[in-house]
Amino acid sequence: MIVVDTNILAYLLIEGDRTEVCRKVLWKDPEWCAPFLWRSEFRNVLTTHMHHAGMSFDGATARMGESEKLLVGREYSISSKVVLELTSANSVAAYDAEFVCLANKLERKLITTDKPLLKTFPDVAVTPEEFAATTLYCEQDVDPNT
């Protein structure tokens, strides 16, 4: 199981430059998890794509449904105290801190492209490219091209 931030979900489900590497991440570890915050952030990403990138309402709702299926049973509440402790000791936004706190709580890696998180939390945060290149393949039969 790995923690993914909202951008990783977006890269996977909205075709672009990083879609392929995020498919490889999913292939290597299909058990993605995230704090409940991901839902609001992903809705915002989809809204932006509807308003500025020509995504249809049906396309947005389909992607939201896919993301909810991907994370079903692996969404977590994060303690406000823990988030505030992390943000008081590090110059990161509370939104971003939720993902780091979850990774710390579960003792898992956080897959992200957020440069400040990668720099501030190198023991927890890794890029999808790093994860895809260094992690052992999952034993489950998951097609990286789906």
Q: What is the alpha-carbon Rg in Å? A: 15 Å
The CATH superfamily label reads 5'-nuclease
N- and C-termini, Cα separation: 19 Å
What is the total domain count?
A: 1
Helix content: 55-70%
Structural class: alpha/beta
Descriptive report:
With 146 residues, this protein is α/β, with parallel strands linked by helices. It has a single domain (2-134), classed as 3-Layer(aba) Sandwich (Rossmann fold), CATH 3.40.50.1010. It is built from eight helices and five strands; from the N terminus they run E-H-H-E-H-H-E-H-H-E-H-E-H. It has a five-stranded parallel beta sheet with strand order 3-2-1-4-5. Helix 7 links the parallel strand 4 (110-111) and strand 5 (125-126). Helix 1 crosses helix 2, helix 2 crosses helix 8 and helix 3 packs antiparallel against helix 4. The chain is globular and about 40 Å long. The two termini are 19 Å apart. Residues 138-144 have low confidence and may be disordered.
Q: Quick recap of the structure?
A:
The protein has eight helices and five strands; from the N terminus they run βααβααβααβαβα.
Task: Give the key terms.
single chain, 146 residues, alpha/beta, Rossmann fold, five-stranded parallel beta sheet, 8 helices, 5 strands, globular, disordered C terminus
